[in-house]
Amino acid sequence: xxxxxxxxxxxxxxxxxxxxxxxxxxxxxxxxxxxxxxxxxxxxxxxxxxxxxxxxxxxxxxxxxxxxxxxxxxxxxxxxxxxxxxxxxxxxxxxxxxxxxxxxxxxxxxxxxxxxxxxxxxxxxxxxxxxxxxxxxxxxxxxxxxxxxxxxxxxxxxxxxxxxxxxxxxxxxxxxxxxxxxxxxxxxxxxxxxxxxxxxxxxxxxx
Length: 207
Fold this sequence. Notes:
Layout: H1 2-10, H2 14-21, H3 23-33, H4 41-70, H5 75-100, H6 105-114, H7 116-133, H8 137-143, H9 145-152, H10 154-170, H11 175-193, H12 200-203
């Protein structure tokens, strides 16, 4: 079963993931042009872009635990998932800079210092920027595999920061981001609890 699923996954081109990953952006553009947003369109645009970035970030974090536990490999899609995450995160920040703050850089700097949730968000974005810039084979060769892997562990810090940014921005204790934070903590916990792929053939004979 695992071999069949992995064979099917190998037949899916990475560009197909990119095509599917841009569907939320296309739907957002459609809603924006056709009046499908709420009473605060700028807020809706920012939130939808930010949430989509988080979804792709969680998906990228799930790749390794899924492989270790089930033997099903999405590894060839992990870079695309991370870059899709950064694409939506960048658009999220850009929408805030242009539409919300109207390119008033001084006001932006004061806002970031004054509002802790913006500090969390900006810190997470800078981490994602570092990951996106180095998500290429040239960076792996230039940095060396070990240093590159250490840098990309920033994803484990960025993901909780994104959910804290979301929770604090709403000034309540909303269920959805709390559930996403819980999912992230579970995924990070699984990386520690299952440090190596499960060998199902051996596991079947161990009582």
